[in-house]
Design a protein that fits this description.
Low-confidence stretches: 197-201, 204-213
Order of helices and strands: EEEEEEEEEEEEEEEEEEEEEEEEEE
Distance between the termini: 9 Å
CATH architecture of the domain at 5-89 and 97-160: 3 Solenoid
Helix content: under 10%
Structural class: mainly beta
CATH class of the domain at 5-89 and 97-160: Mainly Beta
Number of helices: 0
Oligomer: single chain
Strand order of the largest sheet: 1-4-7-10-13-16-19-21-22-23
CATH superfamily of the domain at 5-89 and 97-160: Hexapeptide repeat proteins
Largest sheet: 10 strands, mixed
Radius of gyration: 18 Å
């Protein structure tokens, strides 16, 4: 069993659930109700709220706050200073803790440095959010989005390579690194793995989070 490693400056509140093999760096704060899976890396100055959930294999770079209502599935990458929100109309003098809106980032997605994910959005599996983008709506699986507000400009493979596909229609493309085939139908892309249901590009299945070690 591999225990998790936490820097002495990290604050981990009693009750936080942290899986095996995590790396928790300088000045991280993990609240009591947080759920964190196995092999997660939390960079310097990361905050994880009471009602936040982080799946196995995620990498959260420096200065990211994963607030209440945010769920990251397995193998999500959050670039430095990526931003989540949980209220759409905040006022300092109005209490809105009962109005938090949830955000879901699905398996394998990448959130680029300094991007902002407005609450209430769902980021699809293996989607790729460009650096500095502001996402204010759902993003399809494998979509590449950039800009303010974010707009889709292409598609990305699970390996992280841009695919030669139009934004909509009927077409196919192959990832040169894995051999996986990607099929565009309308405005959605599906992956056909080269080696069975998982394919070489898909991360392994993850188990549920465990208690702190």
């Amino acid at each position: 069993m591999t225990t998790s490693l936490a820097h002495p400056s990290a604050v981990i509140d009693e009750g936080a659930q942290i899986g095996e093999g995590c790396r928790i760096w300088h000045f991280v704060h993990i609240c009591a109700g947080a759920r964190i899976g196995k092999r997660v890396s939390l960079g310097q100055n990361v905050f994880v709220g009471n009602r936040a959930s982080i799946g196995d294999g995620c990498k959260i770079q420096n200065n990211v706050s994963v607030y209440d209502g945010v769920t990251l599935e397995d193998d999500v990458f959050c670039g430095p200073s990526a931003v989540f929100t949980n209220v759409t109309n905040p006022r300092s003098h109005v209490e809105r803790k009962e109005e938090y809106r949830t955000t879901l980032v699905k398996r394998g997605a990448t959130l680029g440095a300094n991007c902002t994910i407005v609450c209430g959005s769902t980021i699809g599996e293996f989607a790729f959010i460009g650096a500095g983008a502001v996402v204010n709506r759902d993003v399809p699986a494998y979509a590449l989005v950039v800009g303010v507000p974010a707009r889709q400009i292409g598609w990305m493979s699970a390996f992280g390579e841009r695919l030669s596909l139009p934004l909509a229609g009927a077409a196919t493309a192959e990832c040169p690194h894995t051999g996986d085939r990607y099929v565009l139908s309308g405005e959605q892309v599906a992956r056909c793995p080269a080696n069975g249901p998982q394919g070489r590009s898909a991360p392994p299945e993850r188990s549920n989070v465990h208690g702190i070690h």
